[in-house]
C-alpha cells in the first residue's frame, strides 16, 4: 500500500525515524534501553499509559523470546504495536459497515471545525461512487462560513447530489429533507456533514442529538456509522476531543486525518487503547484519493521504513 507509505512519510520522519534511530544506536538490552524506549513513545504521543504498557510487554516478551538482536527486537515491537491495537477489538470492526438490505446507510460525521469532516466526506463519496454506489450528501454544517459551498464543490467534483438548506437553516431540517430524499431515491449512502463549533459545546451536543433523533424518526436503525473525525496532527489534543465527544454522542468509529503532515502518528495507538474505538479511516492528504482504510499491521511496519 503505496499510499500508506507515501502518506505516512512525515509520521515516519517523526515517530518512525525516532524509532529507527533508537534501534540503530542501542548497544545492550538493559533497563536503560527500556527507559529510553518508553520516553521515546511518550514523546511520540502514544500516551503515557500506552507507552508504559507497551514497554512492559516488550520487556517481558524480549526476555521470554531472548530477543537480543536489532531485527528480533523490531519484530517484537511491531507485533506488540499490532497486538495492542487488536486487543481492543479485532481487525473486522475496523471496516466501515454497509448493510445492503438497509438502504440508505446513513453515515454521520462529527468533530470540531477544521478536523477534516467535509474533506473526508468528499473523499468517501468518490470511493463509493467509484464502486458504483449511489450517494447523497447532506450539508448540515450550516454554521461554519463556507462549509455548505465546500461540500457542494466536492459534490460537483465527484458527481453526487448535495442537499442544502437556506442560510442559517436548522441543521436537523436539512438532515430531515436529505433523509427523505435518500429514502425516496433508494440511495445506497447518505453522508451527513455537521457543524463543529467548539466554543459552545452544550449547543453542539444538543444539535448532534437532535440530528440523530431526526434520522431515527425516519429510519429507526440508522445511522449505520457515527464517525468522529479527528485531526491526527494535534496529537494528545485529538485524544481529549475524542473523550469529550464520546461522553455525549454514541460513536461507532474514528477517522484520523492529516497523518501525512504529522510526526505524532503514535496517537493512533493512544486513542485505540484508551477509547476502545476502531480507527476506520485515515486521511493522508487533501486530494480525493488520499483516504485509506486503517490497517494496524501496515501502520506498524510502515513506522520502520
Ligand atoms: P471540517 O471543518 O471538519 O469540515 O474540515 P475540512 O474538511 O474543511 O478540513 C480542514 C482543512 O484540512 C482543509 O484545508 C483540508 O484540505 C485539510 N485536510 C483535511 N483532511 C486532510 C488530510 O488528510 N491531510 C491534509 N494534509 N489535509 C487535510
Structure description:
The chain is of the alpha/beta class and 305 residues long. The protein has 12 helices and 8 strands. It has helices spanning 2-7, 9-25, 31-43, 48-65, 70-87, 117-130, 147-158, 171-184, 201-218, 236-248, 267-275, 296-302; strands at residues 105-110, 135-140, 162-163, 189-194, 225-231, 253-257, 279-283, 291-293. Strands 3-2-4-1-5-6-7-8 form an 8-stranded mixed beta sheet, sandwiched between helices. Strand 2 (135-140), helix 7 (147-158) and strand 3 form a beta-alpha-beta unit. The longest helix has 18 residues, at 48-65. The chain is elongated. The structure holds guanosine-5'-diphosphate (GDP).
Summarize the entry for a quick read.
One of its GO terms (cellular component) is cytoplasm. Helix content is 52%, strand content 13%.
Give a topology summary.
Blueprint: H1 2-7, H2 9-25, H3 31-43, H4 48-65, H5 70-87, E1 105-110, H6 117-130, E2 135-140, H7 147-158, E3 162-163, H8 171-184, E4 189-194, H9 201-218, E5 225-231, H10 236-248, E6 253-257, H11 267-275, E7 279-283, E8 291-293, H12 296-302
Parallel strand pairs: 1-4, 1-5, 2-3, 2-4, 5-6, 6-7
Antiparallel strand pairs: 7-8
Helix pairs in contact: 2-3, 3-4, 4-5, 5-12, 6-7, 8-9, 10-11
Family: Belongs to the GTP-binding SRP family. FtsY subfamily.
Organism: Lactobacillus acetotolerans
Membrane topology: Peripheral membrane protein
Low-confidence stretches: none
Largest sheet: 8 strands, mixed
Number of strands: 8
The rough form would be described as elongated
Integer average pLDDT: 85
Cofactors and ligands present? guanosine-5'-diphosphate
Strand order of the largest sheet: 3-2-4-1-5-6-7-8
Termini separation:
13 Å
DSSP summary: helix tally: 12
**Percent in strands:** 5-15%
How much helicity do the residues have? 40-55%
In N-to-C order, the SSE pattern is: HHHHHEHEHEHEHEHEHEEH
Report Rg. Answer: 21 Å
- Structural classification: alpha/beta
Subunit structure: Part of the signal recognition particle protein translocation system, which is composed of SRP and FtsY.
Catalytic activity: GTP + H2O = GDP + phosphate + H(+)
Subcellular location: Cell membrane; Cytoplasm
Keywords: Cell membrane, Cytoplasm, GTP-binding, Hydrolase, Membrane, Nucleotide-binding, Receptor
